[in-house]
Specification:
With 436 residues, the chain is α+β, with helices and mostly antiparallel strands. 46% of the residues lie in helices and 23% in strands. It has twelve helices and 13 strands.
Length: 436
């Protein structure tokens, strides 16, 4: 076998492969002989089928398999010999006019690019920080109380207000016609919880049991029900039952119901603080990581392999179809999804992956076993049985690979921040948590 490598455009390469015909023929004959020993055909005993009959029946498919295997081996060997890092699968075509007794092929492919990392010294970066305040603990305490609230029927003449649980019948029509999901009986919702659209809650507020009311409701343009999104419906609602909410007191009983070992309010508040601090840490890390990766990727120079971008596009489109299927969309696996929807995201992912890989390689930022263990321990700490969660991670290579990737990104983040010109920025707890 002889090999020649030709550089085309940017990352595109071509390797010309030449294989002796006798190698192909020899392997084909060898495989047909093995096949003849086991193949079953009508009119012949097993192992007694003549070679010419086996070759007639299976020769083409065996020849095809051998050609693919031998050309693939030749390509891998040539790429390794030339020390090429191949991106994606090669496109291989047979050439005409090869010397007698030889087969010649052209393999077109891309290689991974050289990544030029810029000096990150002095790069301006904001490092976010946030504290868990007593007010944040109080707010979380109220959420926990709300999750354990009970309801008791209100007086017949009481008016509905936020916090009450209403039982209603309702019917909506658009242009005089009913629509799917627009009618229900004995439907329960809590005013102020955001389960219903604002116009619906506003119409129900102030009503008394036995009353009915008509009102208009404009569905948002991005409403999940596509048939009614952006349209206005006429509704009639009847209030059938009204219940007042009762929140449990903040006391030892509440602490005990939430699994606090010493069943004390102080222990409950300490547990809430610990959990909030853990969540704050992860959110801050996520924000700071994004800033570091943005700074890194925007200052790197590289060409993107089209094969890698295409593979990433296919993954994103497949994920989008899986999401549509989960939402109950008919024939989601055949849904036409244009590549342009995800091209920018795919290109960024490929760029980021290549840049991070080069930074990790050149600065020895690989995930160390003790780092992986520490991260898993931290993730498991919030569960009731941490040791079982730890075992769950270690039992699956895919989960371990995901943890390793996170640890590597954390190492990259700290590396970038260690060289940057950092400005500290304190963020309000509610802002960090995305709460109003």
């Amino acid at each position: 076998m002889s090999v020649s490598v030709e550089t085309l455009e940017k990352l595109e390469r071509k390797i010309t492969l030449t294989l002796p015909v006798k190698i192909i023929q020899s392997e084909v004959q060898s495989r047909l002989k093995r096949l003849a020993r086991t193949v079953k055909m009508d009119g012949f005993r097993p192992g007694k089928v003549p070679m010419n009959v086996v070759a007639q029946r299976y020769g083409y498919s065996v020849h095809y398999e051998v050609m693919n295997a031998k050309v693939g081996e030749a390509f891998s060997s040539a790429a390794n010999e030339a020390r090429l890092r191949v991106a994606g699968q090669p496109r291989i075509t047979e050439k005409e006019g090869a010397p007698e007794g030889e087969l010649s092929f052209d393999a077109f492919f891309e290689v991974y690019p050289e990544v030029k990392l810029s000096d990150l010294t002095g790069v301006p970066l904001e490092r976010l920080s946030s504290d868990v305040s007593e007010a944040a603990i109080d707010k979380t305490m109220n959420i926990l109380r709300k999750q354990r609230r009970t309801f008791a029927q209100r007086a017949q003449d009481a008016a509905a207000h936020p916090g009450d649980r209403a039982t209603v019948d309702f019917e909506g029509k658009i242009d005089g016609e009913p629509f799917d999901g627009g009618k229900a009986q004995d439907f329960q919702f809590v005013l102020g919880d955001g389960q219903m659209l604002k116009e619906f809650e506003a119409a129900t507020t102030g009503m008394k049991v036995g009353e009915n009311k008509t009102f208009q409701l404009a569905f948002p343009e991005d409403y999940q029900g596509k048939d009614v999104a952006g349209k206005t419906a006429d509704f009639i609602v009847t209030l059938k039952k009204l219940e007042a909410a009762h929140l449990p007191e903040v006391d030892a009983a509440l602490a005990k119901s939430l699994g606090i070992a010493d069943a004390s309010v102080d222990g409950l508040r300490a547990d809430i603080r610990k959990n909030l601090e853990r969540e704050v840490k992860f959110r801050l890390l996520s924000h700071n990581k994004q800033a570091a990766l943005d700074a890194l990727v925007t200052r790197a120079e590289l060409d993107l392999p089209n094969a890698s971008v295409k593979a990433e596009l296919e993954r994103l489109i497949e994920s989008a179809r899986a999401d549509l299927k989960q939402r109950g969309v008919k024939d989601a696996d055949k849904a036409p999804i244009p590549e342009d929807m995800f091209r920018a995201q795919a290109e960024r992912r490929v760029r980021l992956g290549l840049v991070v890989a080069e930074l990790v390689r050149s600065n020895a930022l690989h995930a160390r076993p003790e780092q992986i263990k520490a991260h898993i321990d931290e993730l498991s700490a919030s569960y009731e049985k941490p040791t079982e969660v730890v075992r769950w991670y270690y039992a699956d290579n895919k989960r371990m690979a995901e943890v390793e990737a996170i640890v590597i990104e954390n190492n990259v983040t700290e590396h970038v921040f260690s060289r940057a010109n950092i400005t500290a920025k304190a963020v309000d707890f509610d802002e960090l948590m995305g709460q109003n």
